[in-house]
Amino acid sequence: MNRVVPTRVGVNRGIGNYPEIPDGCPHARGGEPINIEAAHSGEALRDRAWFLAGLKRFEESLQACDRAIALEPQNRHLWLEKAAVLSDAGRNHEALALIAQAFEDKAFADEYHRRGQSLLDGLPG
Fold first, then answer.
1. Is the pTM of this model over 0.70?
2. What are the 10-residue block averages of pLDDT along the chain, 125 residues in total?
3. What angle do CA 64, 70, 72 make, to 5 degrees?
4. What angle do CA 115, 119, 124 make, to 5 degrees?
5. What domains are defined for the chain?
6. Alpha helix segments (H runs only) across 1-125
């Protein structure tokens, strides 16, 4: 019987088709992995990147991130996803540089400021 494990990107249902994925992998999602070359959305490639990161196949994961960013360069959320993969791969300096670069976009930075402020406003106080 497959265990269901909540993950950062959704739900990891024990993956019978991919025995190399450890039970409870923190990043992998169930289902067929997508073909990086055939993917036409940043979101699909992001999911593929997390799948690969869960397998500790960081170079392939970063290729999926790069392709996602190439498809949707204005989507700074994808930049943060790549930074998370870089961090998981132990490449923290590169991850921090990419985060800083993503937040150079004022609209993106303002969005995160508003999100943070709304969380703070909701705290008991």
1. no
2. 39 46 50 55 87 92 94 94 95 96 94 91 82
3. 100
4. 165
5. 4-121 (1.25.40.10)
6. 42-54, 58-71, 76-88, 92-102, 106-121
